[in-house]
Amino acid sequence: MKLLVINGPNLNMLGIREPGIYGDQSFAALCTFIQKAVAEVGAECELYQSNHEGSIVDKIQEAYGKFDGIVINPGAYTHTSVAILDALSAVKIPTVEVHISNVMEREEFRHHSFVSLVAQKTYMGLGFEGYRRAVRFLALGEE
Ligand code: DQA
Question: Which residue's CA lies nearest to atom 9 of ligand 1?
Fold first, then answer.
């Protein structure tokens, strides 16, 4: 099983960015955490981070026929990007959405997610653990 894990804008600033919301662990620590979660289920993964909407669309298109699952935290594009939604709909790769914070308990503009329209599952408010749950859902069908 090959998983593509996509992190969108500003997630590379983890540890620096609003630690009261996102915690004090770095993006590098998140990458190590995800790699461990993927190894635990005997899968392989590619980690990708971009601050650019079109680059994320390109990456999803390139995943067609190459990956069995996508874990995506689209960052702020969650709430704005029809283009990322359309790319995920086009490739039809099983997708799980992750948010470190609980977006439903934050500002109203964060309550709507375009990606949720195609995601099989969404984990939010669990910190890094949400990524582990997403990997296990895709690899093992574990809820
Ligand atoms: C986020 C929540 C989004 O609203 C925000 O724009 C992010 C991170 C999260 O992981 O909690 O950049 O996706």
Answer: 99
